Each structure stands twice: as structure tokens, then as C-alpha cells.
Amino acid sequence: KLKHSLLERLVHYLHVLVERHPDNEREYFSSAHVAALLHMDDTQIRKDLAAVGVRGYPRLGFRTLEAREAIRRTLGFNCRHRAILVGAGHLGGALAAYKGFAGYGIQWVGIFDADSDKHGTRFGRLVVQPLSRLHNVARKREIHLAVIAVPSGAAQDVANQVVTAGINTLWNFAPMSLVVPSRVYVRNEHISVGLGELSYHLKQSADP
Amino acid sequence: KLKHSLLERLVHYLHVLVERHPDNEREYFSSAHVAALLHMDDTQIRKDLAAVGVRGYPRLGFRTLEAREAIRRTLGFNCRHRAILVGAGHLGGALAAYKGFAGYGIQWVGIFDADSDKHGTRFGRLVVQPLSRLHNVARKREIHLAVIAVPSGAAQDVANQVVTAGINTLWNFAPMSLVVPSRVYVRNEHISVGLGELSYHLKQSADP
Ligand SMILES: NC(=O)c1ccc[n+]([C@@H]2O[C@H](COP(=O)([O-])OP(=O)(O)OC[C@H]3O[C@@H](n4cnc5c(N)ncnc54)[C@H](O)[C@@H]3O)[C@@H](O)[C@H]2O)c1
Ligand SMILES: NC(=O)c1ccc[n+]([C@@H]2O[C@H](COP(=O)([O-])OP(=O)(O)OC[C@H]3O[C@@H](n4cnc5c(N)ncnc54)[C@H](O)[C@@H]3O)[C@@H](O)[C@H]2O)c1
């Protein structure tokens, strides 16, 4: 089982390898070049690439496509993850619109909201439904992931409902800690963590 | 200078202390209770609270308001951070609408977009302007933070412009690494990191 820090580094390597720098049109890259871009240690990058089965070619360096494929395979980005979204507000709308998710294997199969004014609204091929319809959707095909983008006050109740419907992986954007059974995996995406770092940094620079 | 991991834990304590659990209406809380909610070690919480100058009262526990204020003060959430947003699309729109930011000291003073169709659109008290107007806004009062919510292909160019305008702290939501002068601080908010973890976890549970 790979460590969280390695997973995070792999995501950053992937960003560098898919960005449209002129160098990325080249078939090979050097770990030193990626290290410089990410302010990282060259040795760490080589270790990480070896950990996903990628080694350099003498005098050429690492093959770009090979490294990208190995990272995507390791992270499971080439799998299909069927996901539902609960909360079609400002944040939910942005997530539903994000074309980037398809590249990570996320396939939206349902969007739910408690506000009847939003029911019937289209987001791509999907139509917003009341959460009472969740069990119908979950019964048809296994849902791997529920994304929670509702206000904090509603998040625990929503979590209870999606877990009851058989969904065992939750991505929570509401700034609170969910209580779930131990088999359920929750990833909290708390924007306040980034804000905390920025705010602390700003305070330090204003008042060292 | 506080470590990143401590800053992150402080943000999570704050979430627990401001969530509307019936316990949070109590004047005091126990570190053991917070530890249980966050699946953490009680000793760590006590150490962290001591680090921000908060200690427990015998037989009572920690004072909720005292702990909240100390954490907010440490993180700089009670300061005013003047921020601009570049990119008034799906994500930018969600960020501009987020009432939560005010509680963290973020005060939007400008919203910019390259799309002339969006110029003049209102977001709260602000109107979307072309990025060419950035220098006017920056000249009037110091801008502490630029939030970048434009497509990857445009992000480096936008970063160059905001740095030239004198902004030294950037919050980057585009999935790529920005190149900036060493005095400039960049916080990357890469949703792909959370996706990477989730995707890896889903793959492990499907195929252990
Ligand atoms: N907007 C942002 O940039 C942002 C950033 C960080 C965190 N968040 C968090 O994301 C969540 C959503 O934020 P937002 O700005 O989109 O809010 P929003 O008010 O625009 O949207 C919330 C949506 O959830 C729906 N909803 C409420 N209760 C529900 C329930 N029980 N079941 C189903 N749907 C329900 C509402 O009808 C609404 O459409 C909040 O918890 C917020 O703290 C938002
Ligand atoms: N939508 C999401 O949930 C989400 C999640 C993670 C990351 N992101 C990232 O956030 C960024 C924005 O995503 P989005 O979904 O809002 O895209 P979007 O296309 O809806 O919005 C992008 C906006 O940026 C503007 N823009 C483009 N070039 C510009 C420039 N040079 N100067 C000023 N404005 C410019 C566009 O006119 C548009 O309004 C992207 O980099 C995306 O990868 C988005």
C-alpha cells in the first residue's frame, strides 16, 4: 500500500509530464529537469519512478509516455469510478462542469439536490434529482464514490444516506468531520487548510 | 514559524469547535472528545493547544471560545487579507460566492476575466473587469493575495501579470506548477491530489 506522500508526489509528476511545455513534446525527460521545476530532490524522483516500475534509459533519460502511463495506472486513473454528486450549488456546479475529472476516471452517474427548484436542471447528460431517488440509482449499478457538496449542517445527514445506499467512499467538501462506519473511507477536501496556510503566511510577512 | 502539519491540525480543531454539535454550545470541551472525533491522539491535541497558548482548567477542560480565538489569531484569520480573483468561470464563480471566506479574513477587492462577455457581470459588490485593469486596482491599495482560477494554459501568464502588479502571494487552482520569483509564495490547490488518493483507494478496494 503506497504512502500518502508518495501518492501526492506522483500526482505532481503527472502534472509536469502533461503540461504543455515545449519539453513535454520530447519523448524523453530528465529527472533533474522535473526536480528543478518542483523544487525537489532528483534522487527522490528516481526512487519514486522506480517504485512504479519506471527506469531511465542510458544517455536518453526517462520515456515521457511510459512514465505517464505507469503513474496513471498506479493511481487508478485509467479505471472507471462511478460517482454521484450531492449538492448542485456553487461548488457542486463547478465540480460537475469540470472536464478534468474524466481524465481521472471519474464518471458522473447522478446529481442530487434537496432544492426542488433545481430538480430537472441539466448538467451535461445528467439531470438533478431529489436525494430520495438515490436508492434507485444505486440499485442499478454499483456506485463507487459520493461527492458531498452541501452545507455543513446537511453533510452528516447526506453521508448517512449515501452510506445506507451502499456507497463506501466519500469525498467531503463541507468543512466538518463526518462520522461514518469504519468500512467507509472519507477524503476531506477542506479548502480551509489551504486558507490556513495562506493566512498564516500573510500574517508572518506582515508582522515577522 | 509553525510547521505545515501543525497548521493543518489547527484548522481541523477549529472545524470541530465551530460545528453545531450540541456539545459545542458548552463553554468547555475535553481534548479526549476532540481526539475521538478526529481519530487522533489526545496528547497531540494538548501539545498543539499549548503551542498556541491554550491550557485546560482543572476538572473543567479547555474553554471553547478561548481555544477558537487563539487558533484564529495564530492562523491570522482575524486579519484582513485583500484578495483578487482571476478567472470568473465555474470554479472562480464558486469561490466568489463562498460566504465562508469572510470568516477567514479574505476580502475580495477585484475579480478579473479575459472573456469580454463576462465583463460587467456582478459578483456581490464586485464587477468582473478585464485583467488590464489590474494595475489600477493594485495601485489604489496593497493587494495581499491573488487567486488563480483560469485554465492551465493561461495560468503562468496570469501569474506573471499579478506578480508584476506587486502581489506576492498566489493561490493557484490550475493543475500545473507556476514559475515565480523566490520572494513570491505559491499555494497550489490541486484537486487532483485528493482525486489521486481516492482513485488509488478505489483501485485497492476493487483489486486488493
Ligand atoms: N463555494 C466554494 O468555493 C466552497 C469552497 C469550500 C468549501 N465549500 C463547501 O461546499 C459546500 C457547498 O458550498 P456552496 O458554495 O456550493 O453552497 P450552495 O449553498 O451554493 O450549495 C449547496 C447546495 O446543497 C443543497 N442542499 C442543502 N441541503 C441538502 C441536502 N440535505 N441534500 C441535498 N442537497 C442539499 C442546496 O439546495 C444547494 O443547492 C459547503 O459545505 C461549503 O462550506 C464551498
Ligand atoms: N471546476 C472545478 O471544479 C475545478 C476543479 C479543480 C481545478 N480546476 C481548475 O480551475 C481552473 C478553472 O476551472 P473552471 O472549471 O472554472 O474553468 P472555466 O473554463 O469555467 O473558467 C475559466 C475562466 O478563466 C478565464 N480566463 C481564461 N484565460 C484567462 C486569462 N488569460 N486571464 C483571465 N481570465 C482568463 C475564462 O474566460 C473563464 O471565465 C482550471 O485550471 C481548472 O483545471 C477547476
Give a written overview of the molecule.
- In chain A, 43% of the residues lie in helices and 17% in strands.
- Chain A has 208 residues and is α/β, with parallel strands linked by helices.
- The first copy, chain A, has two domains: 4-74, Arc Repressor Mutant, subunit A, CATH 1.10.10; 81-193, Rossmann fold.
- In chain A, strands 5-6-4-3-7-8-9 form a seven-stranded mixed beta sheet.
- In chain A, helix 7 links the parallel strand 7 and strand 8 (169-172).
- In chain A, helix 2 packs across helix 3 (42-51).
- Chain A is globular and about 60 Å long.
- At the A-B interface, helix 1, helix 5 and helix 8 of A face helix 1, helix 5 and helix 8 of B.
- The complex binds nicotinamide-adenine-dinucleotide (NAD) (2 copies).
- One nicotinamide-adenine-dinucleotide sits between chains A (86-92, 112-115, 118, 131, 149-152, 154, 157-158, 173-175, 191) and B (94-95, 97-98, 100).
